[in-house]
Each structure stands twice: as C-alpha cells, then as structure tokens.
DNA sequence: TCCATCATGAAAATGATTACAAATATTCAT
DNA sequence: ATGAATATTTGTAATCATTTTCATGATGGA
C-alpha cells in the first residue's frame, strides 16, 4: 500500500506526533517496505542516503514513538533481531526456517473474531501470532532438487 | 509439573544432550518454575546459591541447547527481555499490561488442530501465539476500587 | 590408561539500544 | 512574518545483555 505523503502527515498529526521530516520519512519507509519488516539498521541504511545527517538514535526514537501510538508493531519472531511492521490490518507472521523471510499471513484469529474478548477471566486487548516452518518457495526448491 | 530427577536425566539423554549436573539443574529449575517463565538472570541467581561456581555462560549455553533440542522455548513477548519456557504441552501466553505477569493460556489454535498444517502453500511446523491485556486479578482490583 | 570429545567457567569482545547535552527545527501567539 | 517556547534531532559516550574465546576439567570409548 503506497500512501501519499499528505495522508501520512495527517496520520502523524492524528496520533499526536509532530510530523517532522524524519518521522515522515521513516513512516513512508515502513509503508513502502511493509512486506520486508525492516530492522532499525535497514531503515537507517536506506534513509541516510537521502538524509545524510540522520542518526540511529532518531530511528530508534521514531519507531518507539510509533510503537507507543500504535502506528507500528515490533516483531521479535527470530529472537535475535527486532523488526518493525507498519500496522494497517490485523495479521500474523510466518518465519521460514530455510530462507529466513518473514511473510504476512492474513488468518483471522477466532478469538478476536468473537465478541467477548475474554479468556479465563482475562481481558484480551491484543492478539499476536506467528508461525514457523518452510515457505512455499523453499518447499518447491527442495522438490526440484529431489527430482535429479 | 514436578518431575523427578531421573526422568529429567533421561529426557536430556533422549534429546542427545549429556546429562551434566548444570544442565540437570537448569532443566529442573525450568520444570519447577514453569509458570514464572524465568529469565537467564533469574535462573543464574537461583542456581548460584546451590552451585556457587556456575557461570552465566553456562546458563546461556544450556538454555540455547534446550532451545535447539526443543526442550524449551524463548518468550520475547515484552520486547525488553527474553524469558524461557519449559515445553510440555502446546499453549499460548498472556501478558498482563498492568502487573507484567505472563500467564499460560491453554487455547488450542484451530490451525494446529486441523490436519493439513498448510497455509498459503507454506508448511507450518510451529504455532506461537500470545495475547496482551489485563489479567483477571488486576481487573478485580480495579473493580473493588471503583466501588468506593 | 590414554586419547578424543565435549562441557564448563572466566574474561574479554561484541553489538544493539539508551542517556545525555548541545544544536536545530517546529509551533503558535502575536 | 517574527520570535519565544517547546519539542526534536544529532553525535558521542555509556550501558547492558549476550556471544566468543580459550584454558581447564570431566567423560566415555578404544
């Protein structure tokens, strides 16, 4: 989903964040590279080409502000790195153990689809899920290899 | 679940891990303190009372070995710390935003209950889920307060 | 018993994240 | 538009969890 810059600017405003150049650029980056679930490092690498003075601290500050405001979510699925996800709709993630890709999976969790939002007396506000396994592409590669 | 030491010893053997004293103690700790989902720090603090020479390195080595062999799983739900879980049955986790407790939730995910284990062509080997919200106890506290 | 292998432990290195303080940008009332 | 008040950015330095390195010690098979 490529959203125009004015919409992103308004989005920041409605969330109570001043739409600074850096925040806009980070948000735009998350929007454009949604399916890559970038790391702070990746965001920095890319943006520093356009904004040579930008610092890692700013990226950290910005993504943390986004997390607080619910604009982004952190993915800690691999255990060794934190990746960030621009939140648009509710979805889960799939980590391929072979190629390491993180793929969006749009399965609606039944617990959220239901209206009660309670389990064992606990009030559920967020549902997070992830799967691990072997992705379609890697499965096909194995299949091709096996034929020889 | 308090399992006796011989069973734990055999468990290590069947997983291809030498049943050293340290590994046994870590495994026993995870078994006993299952519902606390301890951090490496917590395991170290507790075990060093009994084994003064034990080092953090050993705890790290051990839990990582357990992760590889599927004896334990890492919980990165809070984002700021890694906690470890002794794997017995498949379950999900609930993080209370008020008190910070991580509570086990035994909801069986329909995707695992089904026989196909495939989604969008990807082969699913592991299903992880977690919820965030307010736990039963914290909800009751708020309720009591509101009455006054 | 000897050797090879693996686990342990201590110290040092690494690497990601945060704290801090000065410089800069943004906002908003005028 | 201007400028004071406020918030943000930036770069460095510090922190902290985790990993690596390596020397030592234990284990188990030949």
Secondary-structure-based class of chain A equals: alpha+beta
Helix content of chain A: 40-55%
Q: Average pLDDT value of chain A?
A: 89
Give the number of DSSP strands of chain A: 6
- The CATH superfamily of the largest domain in chain A is Winged helix-like DNA-binding domain superfamily/Winged helix DNA-binding domain
Count of separate structural domains of chain A: 2
Distance between the termini of chain A: 40 Å
Oligomeric state as shown:
homodimer
Largest sheet of chain A, in brief, is:
4 strands, mixed
CATH class wording of the largest domain in chain A: Mainly Alpha
Radius of gyration of chain A: 18 Å
Proportion of beta-strand residues of chain A? 15-25%
The number of helical elements of chain A comes to 6
Q: What is the second-level CATH architecture of the largest domain in chain A?
A: Orthogonal Bundle
* Greatest interface: A-B, 33 and 33 residues
Give me the side-by-side strand order of the main sheet of chain A. 4-3-6-5
Descriptive overview:
2 copies of one chain form a homodimer. Chain A has 148 residues and is of the alpha+beta class. The model of chain A has no long low-confidence stretch (mean pLDDT 89). Chain A is 43% helix and 22% strand. In chain A, α1 (5-14) crosses α2 and α3 crosses α4 (56-69). Chain A has 2 domains: 1-88, Winged helix-like DNA-binding domain superfamily/Winged helix DNA-binding domain (Arc Repressor Mutant, subunit A), CATH 1.10.10.10; 89-148, 2-Layer Sandwich (Dna Ligase, domain 1). The first copy, chain A, has helices at 5-14, 21-32, 40-50, 56-69, 110-113, 136-147, and strands at residues 72-75, 83-86, 92-96, 102-105, 118-119, 122-134. Chain A is built from 6 helices and 6 strands. In chain A, a hairpin with a 2-residue loop joins β5 and β6 (122-134). At the A-B interface, β6 of A face β6 of B. The first copy, chain A, binds a DNA duplex (30 and 30 nucleotides) through residues 18-23, 40-41, 53-58, 60-61, 81-82.
